[in-house]
Structure formats: C-alpha cells, structure tokens
Amino acid sequence: MGGIVSASRALVVLLVALGMLHAAAAAGAEGLLWQVRDRRGTVCGHLFGTLHLCDRSCFPLPQRVVAAFDAADTLVLEIDPEAPGLAEALIAAGRLPAGERLDDLLPAADAERLARAVAAVGIDPTQMQAMRPWLAGTVLAIAAASRAGFDASFGIEPWLATRARQHGISLLALETVGRQIEALSAAGLAAELESLRQTAEMIIDDRVRDHFERIRAAWLRGDADELLAMINEQGDEAVLAPMTEALIDRRNREMALRIAELGCGPSRYFAAVGSAHFGGERSLVRELERSGRVLAPIR
C-alpha cells in the first residue's frame, strides 16, 4: 500500500487543479502574479498562479514572485502540504465498498484500455481495482507524470511552505482535507469515468509528455484561459462539465470569499493557487474582483 499512500499524498496537494495532469514550468512565467488592493487603494497582498507538478527547471522562481512572497506576513495555500492525515483520509474516501471492483463500473473496452495504461505506468492492478474512479484517475495521472519527469516534490507549494516556515511566515489553508475530498468526488460517476478514460487514453497514445510541455508553454505565456481549456481536452466536455464546476468554478467562489475575508491592512498575504483557477469569466481573479478587490498584474 506504500505506493498508493505516496501517490495519494501528492494528489491531495495537487487538488486535480489541471484536470488530473499538470506540467513543469521554467522560471519566468508572465501574467500569473497580481497585487491585490481594496477599493481605497490599500494593499492586501498578492495572488500567484502555480503549477503543482514541476521539475528542477521551475526554480528559482522569478525574482518578482520571491520578493512579493518575502514581503508577506502570511502564506495562503489551498491546503497545507504538511496537514496530518492527508493520504489516509483520501484513501479511505476513495476506496470502493468491499467486494466491488473498478472494472465492474467500466465497459469492457474501457476496462481493457485501463489495464494497458496501468501496466504502462507500473501500478499494481490489484490496488487500482479497489479504487473509486476519481481516485484511480488521479493516481494514474500522478504515476504517468512521474514517468514523464514531473513530480510533486518539485511543486511550487511545498517550496513556498518550506520557505515560509524558515522565514517565520505563517501559513493559512483555504480549504480542509474534507472539503477537498468532497470536491474530488462531487462530479458524479459519469464525469469520473470520462476523466479516467481521458487519462488512460493519453497514456496509451503516448501524449503525456507533449501535454505537459504544452501546459508549460501556456504557463510561461501566462495564458490561464488556455490552461483552463486544456482540462477537458480530448474528453467529452458536456460529460466533464460537472467536474469543472466541482473542482474549479465552485472552489473559485469559495476561495475568493475566504481570501477577501483576510482583509487589507498592515499584514499582507501571498496567496498561491493552481493556475487553472485563473482562466475564464469564473476565475479566481474575477471572483475576487466581484468581492470588491482590485487586482493589478505584476510583470
């Protein structure tokens, strides 16, 4: 079970913010750092779009990002990477009832393709068969990412959390473990199965590295709309719409309200959230503006 625990911990950190697959990013991304003010002009803090799976090329972060972070009193993340019980809670929530198998939920052709994808990334198929589709899809994606050279150990959030503790910056989580599990499992069976199929097909067709590289390019351009669009790429958008609502749109509304509640004044925050949350009219930026904040990009 150790491999599943490791993958599950990474999954909780990732939040599936980019539709189960994320990309590495070289330092220097444009357009993903904003200064946040209230309508009177008082600086509240900064908002930064991250990638959750990276490689060594992600570091060092751009100096403007590090400077904004070092000037903060509080680091705000989706969740604390060191929160206790992350993996255990995720595994418990993602386990099928005793006697049930993942293959029982799949058409025969999809079960065969899933078996090929699982073999390609080296996951124990017995462990995979015990998982609900949402957990199986994300564990499969994490394993594929690792084989493509991208790993949560090089994620930006863990680096920020470590630096915050070293510099005496407090850390605030926007969400609880329970809320994240709720989001991961809220889309419904049809969306979960479509996302699992999408991930398996990407592995079988050997498109994982190319997908990551395209996400990296969009991140470097600061193209949050493209990052958001790539979530459902090669999948049935209508079927996956409930997943986008559960994982992105609803959480954007909730996180914006939580960040707005931090207020503005002598203490400033640095809020770092996955970059797919910054695309579209329902983005975290738009939701913060609707809450009364004024955001200005820092380039």
What's this model, at a glance?
By secondary structure, this protein is of the alpha/beta class.
Description:
The chain has 299 residues and is an alpha/beta fold. It has one domain. 50% of the residues lie in helices and 10% in strands. A 6-stranded mixed sheet has the order 4-3-5-2-1-6, sandwiched between helices. A hairpin with a 5-residue loop joins strand 1 (33-37) and strand 2.
Q: What are the SSEs and their pairings?
A:
Layout: H1 2-14, E1 33-37, E2 43-50, H2 63-70, E3 74-77, H3 86-93, H4 108-121, H5 125-129, H6 133-147, H7 156-166, E4 170-173, H8 177-184, H9 189-204, H10 208-221, H11 224-229, H12 237-260, E5 269-274, H13 284-290, E6 294-297
Parallel strand pairs: 2-5, 3-4, 3-5
Antiparallel strand pairs: 1-2, 1-6
Helix pairs in contact: 1-3, 1-6, 4-6, 4-9, 6-9, 9-12, 12-13
